[in-house]
Specification:
Strand content of chain B: under 5%
Number of strands of chain A: 24
Distance between the termini of chain B: 47 Å
CATH class of the largest domain in chain A: Alpha Beta
Helix content of chain B: 40-55%
Oligomer: heterodimer
CATH class of the largest domain in chain B: Mainly Alpha
Helix content of chain A: 25-40%
Radius of gyration of chain A: 22 Å
Strand order of the largest sheet of chain A: 5-2-1-9-20
Chain lengths: 421, 239
């Protein structure tokens, strides 16, 4: 469909006027329910509450009292941060922004009735629903492993006790033992995450257990920042890390948690720690709400983050299928602001501007050796499309790498303040 | 309740229609489906796809972002090897120029192809080829999949030069890294800057005079109106 500028303005003005109607005429404030208190959900809740100045009633459905960020959790494993530094609470969102924190799991969504049912039985009605549940794992993607085995072979891909468990296991490895990671297939949360984790585990083992080995079993041919990681591994952890790619059977892997064995293309390897990062899909509540596709992710309108399935339901962050943006906390935060702006516009008639998206991912390879990759994105009618990107270069000098690491610390402080207030 | 839902649905659709087509500030490379038909002109020498191998020409999986003449063991022309040593990377722009006329671009190339003069057909072919290279979703540094176009914004959105409300929205992108509180560790504070200094700095990043890659990228996409709006917004922040 082609609209000329005059026609477009008319449509926008008219829809703006009508859209403003619910708040003007309605007896009650418009209600937004946000499921999930991570980088996507908490940002979206905060921006809607902050920018609507109390004109919209916002409820955040999140069972946890304390949220641990997945980003920077590798640095905790490496000993560069303490566990408490990953912890964030919702008291500013409730106290400073008037957001209601419903401390419960969302059990179901009725999109016809426009209600969310909580595990405790309470029902919340909404005018707009935000679903930002992050990821869940695909059952059976690593034969021999399921969630019940995560206490033996942790995934540590949702930050919290799993991260603590993996760190403790690495530190307790026998001298000269083997750490194994089963890396996930695309698409998954945080493209450089598994490789930063390998670097952090290597950092710990180099100091505590220098004859230990790291076995990285990776079903993908290539990965993000590969040249930078491989250069760093060679430089800092020479001879310690072995990567087995798809050419050597990494797509045919089975684990045996009871005997701590990994079977790679028929070869049995005895390992001491096994970090299984399975294939991923949108958090279960997105599927339960009926907004996901056959690949398990929720397709969204690239201009607004509203789902294709239901324009009253928005999905952002890892759970969304939007095109080119990697699944990261930065992306979720960026998408949440676009969604918040559009939701406010629909409910109160505030101005909506064209979507802008960006992402940067920093990774730490060794002490003061930080690298980054980033891109900017624009919405086309098909998808959120990458239009520009940059990445740290191999051979950069130590001062620049140190500055990049320090920049990442500044970013962490910035984004967590932007998410949690 | 159902009736209310219908109204919401209708409003949602109205908004979608309003956005569609007019707010796009990037365009798809081309039509990959049509490009697949044009590929017939290439497939005599080149292979592409999961089973592709080097043939008369090198396989074209992963061509985007690859250095020219970089498949080891493939017998490239000296001309193309020299271009690779000089740092030629295959991107949307360089591939477009090469396909338009291989010989003007790399004079001794062995690719015996007369060139494709029609820019639209080249765009379709490039869209087809792009689908066989790295996905930015998985490898964020991968080559772009769309062309940025200058945004055509409705005047009442942008008419106000230095609209602080627009600036407030734009500033939300800055605040992912730069703290609203003015904290200054690792990443500098940007609050309470004189407007003029702010505008100067953004333009210096935009022109890549100031060296930081993240800021060059962020400022590079800002229009003059957007920089003015940001400056106006940051100017309104109180201590």
């Amino acid at each position: 469909m082609i609209l000329n500028r005059r026609g477009f303005i008319g449509t926008l003005a008219a829809s703006g006027a009508v859209l403003a109607a619910p708040a003007v005429l309605g007896q009650t404030k418009p209600r937004v329910v946000v499921i999930g208190g991570g980088a996507g959900g908490a940002t979206c809740a905060r921006y809607i509450a902050k920018d609507s100045d109390g004109a919209i009633d916002v409820t955040l459905v999140e069972p946890a009292e304390v949220y641990y960020t997945c980003f920077f959790s590798n640095l905790y494993i490496g000993g560069f941060r303490d566990f408490e530094s990953l912890a964030h609470r919702y008291d500013k969102l409730t106290g400073d922004y008037g957001i209601t924190h419903a401390r419960d799991m969302a059990a179901g969504v009725d999109r016809n009735a426009m209600t969310v049912t909580l595990a405790g039985g309470e029902t919340l009605s909404y005018d707009r629903l935000v679903i930002a549940p992050g990821i869940d794992f695909v059952d059976g993607s690593v034969p021999g492993w399921d969630l019940s085995k995560a206490e033996i072979m942790p995934h540590a891909y949702k930050a919290g006790p799993q991260t603590q468990l993996l760190k403790a296991q690495v530190e307790a490895m026998p001298e000269g033992g083997t750490f194994c990671m089963i890396a996930p297939p695309n698409p998954y949360r945080c493209p450089p995450g598994p490789y930063e984790r390998i670097s952090m585990v290597a950092h710990v083992l180099k100091e505590r257990n220098p004859t230990a080995k790291i076995l990285l079993v990776d079903p993908k041919e290539k990965f993000s920042k590969q040249g930078l990681f491989e250069e760093g591994w060679q430089k800092h952890y020479s001879g310690m890390i072995e990567r087995i790619g798809p050419d050597f059977g990494a797509t045919n892997v089975e684990v045996r948690p009871d005997t701590m064995e990994v079977v790679i293309d028929g070869e049995v390897e005895k390992v001491d720690v096994c970090n299984v990062i399975p294939a991923q899909r949108a958090g279960e509540i997105a599927a339960a709400a009926g907004v996901t596709d056959d690949k398990g992710w929720a397709p969204v309108n690239p201009h607004s983050m509203a789902t294709h399935a239901d324009p009253n339901v928005y999905v952002m962050g890892d759970a969304s299928a939007q095109g080119d943006m990697p699944k990261s906390g930065f992306s979720a935060n960026s998408q949440a602001k676009v969604a918040a702006m559009n939701i406010r516009s629909e409910l109160t008639g505030s101005k909506a501007f064209p979507a802008k998206y960006s992402n940067t991912c920093w990774s730490l390879i060794e002490t003061d050796d930080g690298v980054k990759v980033g891109a900017s994105y624009e919405a086309t009618d098909e998808k959120i499309a990458s239009v520009d990107s940059f990445v740290s270069q191999t051979g950069e000098d130590a001062d620049l790498r140190k500055a990049t690491y320090e920049e990442s610390l500044g970013w962490y402080a910035g984004i967590t303040a932007d998410i949690f207030g | 309740m159902a009736g209310r839902g219908d109204i919401h649905l209708a409003l949602g659709l109205a908004l979608l229609v309003a956005w569609g087509g007019s707010q796009v500030s990037a365009s798809e490379i081309g039509d990959a489906g049509k490009g697949a038909e044009i590929w017939g002109e290439c497939s005599g020498c080149h292979q592409i796809g999961p089973e592709a191998k080097d043939a008369i020409g090198p396989k074209l999986n992963g061509i985007f972002g690859r250095k020219a003449a970089s498949i080891e063991a493939f017998p490239y022309s000296r001309s193309l090897e020299r271009a690779g040593r000089d740092g030629l990377i295959w991107t949307l722009e360089t591939l477009d120029a090469y396909i338009e006329n291989p010989r003007t671009f790399a004079s001794g190339t062995r690719m015996s192809y007369r060139g494709l003069k029609d820019a639209g057909k080249r765009a379709d072919l490039l869209a087809f080829l792009r689908d066989f290279s790295d996905k930015p979703r998985d490898i964020p540094e991968a080559e772009p999949t769309a062309r940025r176009t200058l945004p055509e914004l409705p005047p009442e959105v942008l008419a106000l030069k230095g609209d602080p409300e627009f600036g407030e929205y734009l500033a939300s992108e800055c605040q992912t890294c730069h703290q609203a509180s003015g904290a200054d560790e690792g990443i500098p504070a940007i609050t309470l800057w004189p407007e003029e200094d702010f505008v100067l700095a953004m333009h210096a990043y935009k022109q890549k005079l100031r060296p930081h890659p993240v800021m060059q990228m962020m400022a590079g996409r800002l229009t003059e109106e957007e920089i003015a709006a940001l400056a106006a917004y940051f100017g309104t922040l109180e201590e």
